[in-house]
Amino acid sequence: MVAVQAFPAFNTPNSVDVHGQTCPLVDRPGLTCPVMCVQDFADCPSALAVPQCKNNEQLCDDGACHGSCADVVNPCLCAFDASQVATVYKACPEYTNTVTVPAYDPSIKQAQLELACAIEWGMVGANTTVGMGSGVAEWSVDARDKMVWDMCPVPLTARLTYTESFCLAFYGIMGAELVLFALWHLYKRVRERHAVQLRQLCSPLPTTVAADEKTMSETQSEEQSEYTVGDLPEGMMLLRGFDNNMFGAGLFYLALLTTAGWVVLLAVIVSDYYGKVTGGVKYGMLANSDQSMAVFIFVWHLAALWLAGMLACMHTVRNYFRIECPLPEARVVQVEERRAEVVMMEGSENRLTALANRVRNKLVGRLRLDVLAESCPANRVEIGGETRTFIEYHCTRGRFQCNAFDLGNTHRALLASRNGLSSAQAADRASRIGVNYIHVAVPVVFSYFYLYQMMCMWVWFYFNYFKMALVQFGVILVSAVIKVVIRLKSERKVKALAEHRSVCRVKRNNEWQEIDTAELVPGDVIAVESGMEVMCDGCVLAGEIVVDESSLTGEAMPNDTIPYDASGSGKTYSLFAGTKVLQCTGSTYASPSQSQPTLMSSSSEIKLEKAVVTGTPTATLQEGEPETQVLVTATRTLTDKGKLIQRILFPARYSFVFDEQLRVALLILLAYGGVAFALTIWLMGHDVTSWFYGVFVISEIMSPLLPAALVVGQSVAADRLRRANIFCVDLPRIMMAGKVQVFCFDKTGTLTKEGLEYFAVQEISDGRFHGEEQDMARLPHVTQVGFASCHAVTMVGDKLIGNPVDVEQFRATDWEILAGTCEDHLDTLISPFLESHAGGKEKRKTVHVIKRFEFAHARQSMSVAGSFERLKRMAKSASVPGNYDAVTAKWAKEGCYVLALAHKDLGDVDVNTLTREQMEGECELVSLLLFRNKLKEDTESAIMELKAGDTRAVMITGDTALTGVYIARQCSMISPTARVLLGDIEQGRLVWRDTVTDEAVDADKLLHEERAARDEAERALFDVVAKRTPLVELAVTAAAFDYLVEAGKIRQYLLDIRIFARMTPQGKVDCVQLHMERCVTAMCGDGGNDCGALRAAHVGLALSESEASIVSPFSSSNRSIHSVGRPWQRPFAGYKFLINYATTMSMLELTQFYFSVIVPEAVWIMVDSFIAVGLCIAVTQAQTARKLAPSRPTARLLGAHTLASIWGQTVINYAFLFGMLGLLYRQSWFRCHEFDSRDIDTSLWWLLGDNYEAEIISIVCLFQFINGGAVYNFGYKYRRAWLTNYLMVVMYFGMLAVGYPKPSWNVSVYNSPNGHNILPWDFRWTLWGCCLANIVLCNLYEKFVIPGSCWSGGQELVD
């Protein structure tokens, strides 16, 4: 093996001393003489006496005695054949002693060594000089001298000819694969020359299929499309059909085998390096070190390219080995969609990231990486002799397009389906919709960074760095396992929700039978029983049902559902998938003679008679039929539950400043690594060995531990949140949780207590208001009866179930619901008060409810009780007080939930002959019912803590705007001195009114001055909501919000609006998403009608009793709003530590490569395992501050604050390292004893540390590496005191004080001419003092300069 050498580029070692005088040459002892080659053993010098061989031995050409000379290698042939040389020399016996070379000069070391040996052997005189020569020539092919020095021009080791059998096998396999793949590509091009005309373009939105449709072709045409992937419109899907091909299938499996083959080949080469292939002989297969390294580099590059290509094409590579065909004939359909564009938050893009994104987008577009491709098997179903082909895409079935089934949108159409389906109809619909079962597959995630980590590990394993490779491989593996386990845990929750199935009774062919719920289709009629979980969306046809939606929303809010009615709203009669039936009408319908008391009175007959009034076909329940029946209206992903699962499985993508800048930061590190790689090749001798050193530099600069650091930090943060009863099912959201700028709150159940509390009643008579009354007993009879009966409350055992407002209203009356009453009455209510009757008897007043109009959201009323605005329009104008609006507004401003009650005497009529409008029209107002929604005890302190942390709090509520304003003032969300302007739509235009004076104002004018000053502050602080203390606040109703959205003006007012009132669940989602365009946005709610907003927000926190809610990335089981004010741990310090580690490591490696030294192996293990891994974990253990700071910590990897911190530390470290090396070069004991790499083999890197240069570099950089953890343990105002991170304290001081005696284990002989690196005592103290000064200066810089006034006026920069 030829020794690998390098040399410093800008100075010559041992040239001059500290005074500028030429260094005297020193003697070099312990050198081994080369072999002397002679034509005859008699010519050997006397010092190399030929041995006397035993009788059974013979003297061979290697100068030693052997039993046979047949297999003896003659070193004097220098690996040539005897016929290739002019003279066949023999080797003199080996000289066992060593010699000393006086005045040793590495530049002429070979000539000096030959002369020293010649003098030692008495061949020349002692006064002979190098210039005079040793009198013996060096070996050559043409040499004919009597004796020569055995200085072979080539290594004596065997050489790889690349014609060995395994090489020929490799050429054959690779060549055959290339030919086969080329032939397949040509064959595929010919077969698919018209393929572009066979593709179909369609919308991902479901296609509605009519209930009476016979075949799919009647409503859906199969338009062919000539679109290609490059011009695929956004929001559309391109469908491409593929058919299997035996030749292609074989090549696909060959490609998979090749992928595994590259990994196996790398493993074989690495094993050969350690001698594990040929029975302990190193390079037994690849001949020698140089050729082994060259082969490894060649195979490594090919493997990396192949694996990267397979990774890029992992979703389409299987279809490449299929033949594209018409969709009806396809076995597999490839669905291609353009990747939804990431919504960029305002301020997350700067010039550098914008440039990087433009380049990235062009590259992605050119390589078509912005198109998502998914292969869906084409399922064929035989129905009535007809073969239908369907695909399953995003859990939804369709014939090349998602299908939805339309049962009608009128009560007549829905009730017409109450007889269920036939088996043929059910099979037909099942073939189109698919089974009522959502399969959730856990995706396999493999990124390019995993490939980078794997390829780095292969280099480390090969280049005798397997110890550290095993350590880092273990860390990476553990972090990956943690990531997978947490993801699987989250997926299991989704699977538990999505893949549940059971058995139910269904009406098929006019018979009731039990089937699997997976077989349900729209149009089925099922029987509902108490305790069952509903597996579809449906409409109640008969009976009454009380359901619990906690399994779907995370919040236990029982709801009462009644049969479908022509006059009701859909939600009242709807049953949703994922809910659990708490109670329902008896399981079977009994005839009057068999009637027995049940928990809930049957009202099926009455409900059906209501349908007769509107012209619906009449039907009555037959004896033995289930008493509670539901018509299935939607299954699978067309249910509300299915849509929620789809949103969970395929969420929208939003950009975060850290994510945007992380990509750029990695590219910068990679570019820096490329420069360092080139410098390493130049400094380390321009050979194959230098390639390995260059890869080492790249892997240290862009550490494979970066993703592991993030996972560790996220896991630590999640564990801390768990101890505070805050549970996280989406670890990456933790990074954003520490950067929340806007926190949106639902009102009821979040800011306020769970339900409304009864406050008072204000009577109305003769068109005038009277004083409020809190005692129900003192109210008029009509008012008492109205409040006791106008509700939808039912009894489950001894518990009142229904809308929380209804329950509180009924509880305030002290009336009772009597169970088991006559079938002619819906409910019987009993008053708590006695009244006199004939005969002097006193009885409790009894009221029978014979007809009830349920609360309709569209009408905002339940018969003659409901919204005060609605009842004002329904009532006689004479009964409405003139100051009605002023009084109701006053109560609303005081935080009251206001309902109105009206009364109308119908006389003696048949109520079933009157419509709802006829009965409710021209009624008289009776009173206002007032409820108060009280704040939670800790709401105000939590909001104040958010404000102290410069986090904007916003209210998004379904309640009235004035109530929202009152609650906002109570909890200090709005300043007591702030002027609140309410925006609403009046006569088709937006009008802003002062909530106190009710006068119309010009909101734009009032906001102008404040906005100008605020925008200036925002530009200075880089924060869209920084330091905002407005004197003018805005509130909008849902109508005003919709108007601003449609007019495109909502973004103009968005960050001035504090309260969004009367918002629907979808409106809450839209509002949150608008905020997300500008800021990191959080949403906090109770998991009820705000579950969509919770899921959409960057950070969603559900105040849920369950341990974790699938509707939100975070959930808190203690239901305290103080959960939002908790300082959330952000795993950013670990990233900064590793980047600083990378810059310090590159400095170390480039410096040592310049001197051609390598720090000892023990130092590498210490740095890359204990320091890099240990301190990275220790940094994450820093405790968060107890309260939110006035500003947010930066998340910008490329921001001024981060760059100043990292590069400031780097400059300080560089200065001290170069300063110590400069100081070393001023020491007299060092000069003229410098490390000269011309005299050693630099490929043996683990033996190049026994010199002064490597020692100084090691000690200085060790202090710098260790101190890097301490530096980023500072958290300024975002974390607690430095010493509270106990793990960091122990590791930091333990590592600084570490020392060890002389090791008892074997230490390899160092490949160095000096032989030692012992420093004088005085210089040791100087070195220690400089390292200590380095530590102190770095800590002072990070503690006082980075967060100081020179950066941001005394505060840390924010984004």
TrEMBL record:
The chain crosses the membrane at residues 168-187, 246-271, 291-313, 437-463, 469-486, 664-685, 691-713, 1138-1157, 1163-1182, 1203-1225, 1256-1275, 1282-1301. It is a multi-pass membrane protein. It comes from the Eukaryota. Residues 504-588 form the P-type ATPase A domain. One of its GO terms (molecular function) is ATP binding. This is P-type ATPase A domain-containing protein. Pfam families: E1-E2_ATPase. GO terms for cellular component: membrane. It is found in: Membrane. Keywords: ATP-binding, Magnesium, Membrane, Metal-binding, Nucleotide-binding, Translocase, Transmembrane, Transmembrane helix.
